[in-house]
Amino acid sequence: MKDITDREFNQIRDYVKANFGISLSDEKKSLIYSRLRTTLIDLGFDNFTQYYEYLVNDKTKQAVTRFIDKVTTNHTFFMREVEHFDYFRDTVLPYIEETYRSQKDIRLWCAACSSGEESNTLQMILQDYFGNKPETWNTQILATDISTQVLDKAVHSVYANESLASIPDRWKRDYFKKFDAENSMVTDQIKKQIIYRKFNLMEPVFKFKKKFQVIFCRNVMIYFDNKTRDEVVQKFYDLTEPGGYLFIGHSETLNHTSTKFKYIMPATYRKV
User: Fold this and answer.
1) Residue 27 DSSP symbol
2) Which of 102, 128, 195, 198 ranks highest by number of CB atoms within 10 Å?
3) Residue at a domain's end among 35, 50, 71
4) So what's the pLDDT on residue 134?
5) What is the pLDDT of residue 135?
6) Alpha helices in the chain (DSSP H)
7) Going by C-beta distance under 8 Å and a sequence separation of 6 or more, which residues neighbour residue 116?
């Protein structure tokens, strides 16, 4: 099979930018080749031009599903950027409990959940906080991602035992069960409280019935250019309740001249 040409790479780069908001630098050319090479071989294509034509003309959407699973980066792990989880537990949840006591409804969106480590962690914190309250709260949360592959893993929530090293021992006892000798599974108590859906942050309109009190969208917008990031952040702002919070990755920043979110601490913002 032939190597990817500059023209072919630019076609794929433009397609990724237009449809998924991800900006690919020239340095990503070899990465795109290596990630898609086996797909081209499986499909019997000799070059990336044939593959690109197949991709943009496929009406079943199966091609784009496989494509996005291949080209997106889904690196994550439990307790990543733990300061966010501490702040969520110690500051955000007491605020929500006081402000929404009459509704008793948590509205939290994990907007790039990947394989479920983040969404499961958030739900375990919610169970710890609200599980012993005399009144019953709806703690069900929404978790979305663009990749079908990682969403499938999140739904099943089976993880290698060594990946749980950073998790508190009590969580391992209460919220996980043995899957096999090398893996553990999140309990149904946690999984049933998370709704997983496929969602593209490049949708022109975010059609949700209610606004969110908290949005986690971490380590995704680093792949967006400034214009795309500003547009997505504005949509987050419009979907956030007054007083609500937005958490982004520590390697990311918001445009302070354009966003209406107020800076609270590194990678943490609030709608005031």
Assistant:
1) G
2) 128
3) 71
4) 66
5) 79
6) 6-20, 29-43, 48-57, 62-71, 82-87, 93-99, 117-130, 148-156, 169-175, 188-191, 226-238
7) 143, 150, 153, 154, 155, 157, 186, 194, 196
Task: Report the CATH number that the domain containing residue 213 is assigned in CATH.
Answer: 3.40.50.150
Same domain? For 91 and 61 the reply is no
Please give the Cα distance from 20 to 22 (Å, whole number): 5
Report the pLDDT value the prediction gives residue 133, as an integer from 0 to 100: 78
Task: Specify the pTM.
Answer: 0.90
Helix, strand, or coil (residue 216): strand
Query: pLDDT of 201-232, one tens digit each?
Result: 999 999 999 999 999 999 999 999 999 999 99
pLDDT of 52 over the 90 cut? yes
- pLDDT-derived band at 270 (thresholds 50, 70, 90) equals very high
Q: Quick one: which of 239, 241, 246 has its CA closest to 264?
A: 246
Q: Give dist(CA 74, CA 183) in Å, integer.
A: 20
Report how many domains make up the chain: 2
